[in-house]
Amino acid sequence: MRNFYKVVLFSVLTLGLVTDVAAVDPTIIEDFESGLPAGTDGNGIEIGYSLFSDGSPVAMTTTSNPPADEIGDDGNSALQFDANVTAFGGVLQRFQNATADMWVTQDWSGSEGVSLWLYGLNTNNTLFFDILDNRNPGSTTDDAERWTVEIIDNFSGWLLFEFPFASFSRKEIGNGAPNDGFTLTEVNGWALGTLATGAELTYFLDNIAIYGEAQIPELTVSFSSGNYDTPEG
Question: Residue ranges of the chain with pLDDT lower than 70?
Fold first, then answer.
């Protein structure tokens, strides 16, 4: 697990944000210390970890020796993702139960956003991070709604990214997903992917977390009708 409190400031290059890491109290979603569990649910859907691509070669593993950098390497595991893709490819996690035979959900609605550590190669390649939001009631397929944010690989070494949920946009992938807003009450998983790489590239990912507290809208008062009937006489 990388130390979220060791580095005080990072600039999030794709969003133009400055993150005060010392003020963040994240909840770790995945630290890659337990391998890459995988299985199928009762409908035959792959759950846990799997790969997707346009047919181009992609691979994933965990490594206890990811590249070290200025923030230091504590010797714990990270995800290694290898890709040489023409159009797209990535790693997908559909949240699984302990026995990897049931697709489960997590409630992220109380948080402000999601964060992750990514090892950049400074290739200017385009990556993306997706959140799989809710599915249709009674679904037996992967019709989870995708919400996405873009990451440009214009940095070298480890960098902490924080993405407020408000920065995500809906992605249509033709899977019949509901279009009912980014509710975050039934998050079904996440994905890290890349567009055309131009060559074989190896990325490293660690410590996916949710952070902050969701802003509660101010209470407003409204009237159901502007007209009121009053008996006369």
Answer: 1-24, 69-75, 216-233
